[in-house]
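hey can u check if this looks right to u? its 77 residues, i copy pasted from the old doc so theres a chance i mangled smth
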Amino acid sequence: MSDHTAGEHGMTGASHAHRTPHAEFYVYFALIFVVAVPIALVAWVVALVTQRRLPVHGPLARAWREAGAITPAIFRP
């Protein structure tokens, strides 16, 4: 392994600049969210029936989390 802290005297975090998401990101997020909602709803009902108690997260929260995990993976270089 190499030491990545050795040559950072002149760098002020420019290599890890945070970029704001563009419209394309939001379009992909919305499409993935719309597709994930019915799947999350089915998974939520299955969990409700098999465990006989309400799951901690509802179907919309589960779909939001899935879309939030999948969409950035699409835009990674």
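The CA atoms of residues 18 and 74 lie 17 Å apart.
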